[in-house]
Known about the structure:
It is built from 13 helices and 12 strands.
Amino acid sequence: MHPHIHALYELSAKPQRTIVGLMSGTSMDGLDVALCRVSGAGRDTRIEVEHFTTCAYPKEYSQRLRQVFAKRDIDLQHLTLLNAWVGRLHGQLVKQCLAQWQVNADEVDAIASHGQTVYHCPKAQHGLDDYSNATLQIGDGCHVACTSGILTISDFRQKHIAAGGEGAPLAAYGDYLYFASTDEHRVLLNLGGIANITWLPKAGELSDTLCADLGPGNTMLDAYVQRYFAPRQFDENSTLARQGQVHEPLLAKLSQHPFLHAAMPKTTGPEVFNLAYLAKCQAALGETHLAHEDVLATLCEFAAYQVGTQLARLAKSHGPLHVYASGGGVHNPMLMARIAYFSGEQVQLDSLTQLGMNPDAKEAVLFALLANETLAGQPAKAAAIEGMPQISMGKLSFPD
């Protein structure tokens, strides 16, 4: 037996695995790193988040990535070079974290690396008959593994697409394993660049779970701030948006995008909801000279309306539900307040801290859970989520 295969066999049989989960979102401000102790698999999974931090990226990270991020026309050499560069950087950041936490690399069983999404392209978006769903995450797992010296499981979204899914959102699997309740209807709301939900009905099965993108979360807000209020990267404490007034005609125009009215499950990305889309809507209205604060107030209302009204629909169909929010949007008080307003009285909106997890750590932890399923799970025994294949995900890269 090859020693790597033997090592994987022993790893799958361990009562507990130590997995470092990595997540880098569309904000590209830093790498989320979660050191998790995971035992069991499937519904018997137990996880303890021992350490978590967000490692700030060097300035050149965002500068280099934005040359290819969510763009159709790019320099292919630059993209190719970034694939290795991001992988090595992520591996170096893992080593730095382990040193700070006084954890030896040989104590870690695996790294779960999401990589950096640069283009997400489901068929509903590209509309080309000869092609299926597609997505691209860079930060090659082999470079993470060789740099860190740790077995790396990466590129989770490709298997999902290969099996018929859209490659996103993947949160449903980990959300069900970690957060499903027998006492209440729950929605796990992630307010990242794109807002997405996982619907977990009370005492439901995996097959009852629904996961979908709803529309923009922070992506348009952050991009607008970065363009017009640099060097600010985001609207801290909603300071800028609070100074503006919602422009109702622009809000209505933004809300006409076909994606927003399509049935769930569905996925989207900054390739669709971006400043070009905003400019197109403003031009159609002849409103290209609005005050920047008014635009920000409108973009915040736009994001909140799409999320809040969908939560209200779920509550109308199923009764009172409890929503636990994570992602960068939980730190935007105006966005959270307006989501609560549009959700209505049957929806209780809280931070994920109410369930004992740092809301900033959630996605990194969920990828650690997916890696654990790859190593020790039995996906064939679980019913599929509607519109999402039930498969093991992730490619294995050995450090030697």
